[in-house]
Amino acid sequence: QYLVPNPAHLASCLRSINGGSSTIVTFINCLSVEVKVNWIDFDGKLKFYKALAPNSQYDQQTYVGHPWVVYTDTAFAVFHPLSGDNLNRAIIDNPTRPGRNNGTTLIPIREMAALPCVWSLNGGASTYVTFFNNRFEAVRVYWIDMEGKKKLYETLQPGGTYQQQTYVNHPWVITTVTEPERPIYIFHPTAAPNTTATIF
Question: Closest Cα partner for 162 from 192, 179, 126, 138?
Fold first, then answer.
């Protein structure tokens, strides 16, 4: 039976973004069971592409900044194409702990909530974002680095604004200031100049 993932979790942290170069990904199923290959669209929704038989492979055209999710009945993997050189290989092997080893990140389904699914990628165009805090409370603005770690850049008071130079494929997380700190939303910059991210 095909396992349907938690849509709220995926929508909160996995979605395609524009601006990445075209590339080819080779999905290689080294398992003894069929896997389902899905693209995550711009709204964070799963789009089924292929049922990949055991010990088989196929090439998929995609873009840097477009995540893919592979599922079995008991495990899943997330793959982020990292370059436009057509050398991306998503090797689907035995379940492992989360990592960033070019897509070999099958994780037991019970650990889905712990998925470190947001991090910055190289290759995006430079841009500027203005963060505007339209809430009645202060918020924190974090950049998510190449290892998926939060880096605090600014604490915005109610009504405050802050301009930040950044890149396409570099996500930003807005959180509450009060403890326990709670994420409000994740912002993915686009190539449009001088974007405003309004925090409601």
Answer: 138
By CB atoms closer than 10 A (0-12, 13-18, 19+), residue 165 is: exposed
Using the structure block, give the residue that is written with the tokens 């109610």. 158
pLDDT in tens, the chain (200 residues): 222 333 334 434 677 888 778 888 888 888 888 888 889 888 777 788 999 998 899 999 998 888 888 877 666 677 777 666 666 777 777 544 333 333 333 333 333 333 345 678 777 788 898 999 988 999 999 998 877 788 999 999 999 999 999 988 788 888 889 877 777 777 777 777 778 888 87
d(CA 184, CA 143): 14
pTM for the model: 0.48
Q: What whole-number distance in Å separates Cα of residue 162 and Cα of residue 5?
A: 36
Query: Domains in the chain and their CATH numbers?
Result: 7-114 (2.60.40.780), 126-199 (2.60.40.780)
Q: 110-137 in b/e burial notation, b at 16+ Cβ within 10 A?
A: eebeebbbbbbbebbeebebebebebee
Count the neighbouring beta carbons within 10 Å of the beta carbon of residue 19: 19
The radius of gyration computed from the CA coordinates of the chain, to the nearest angstrom, equals 18
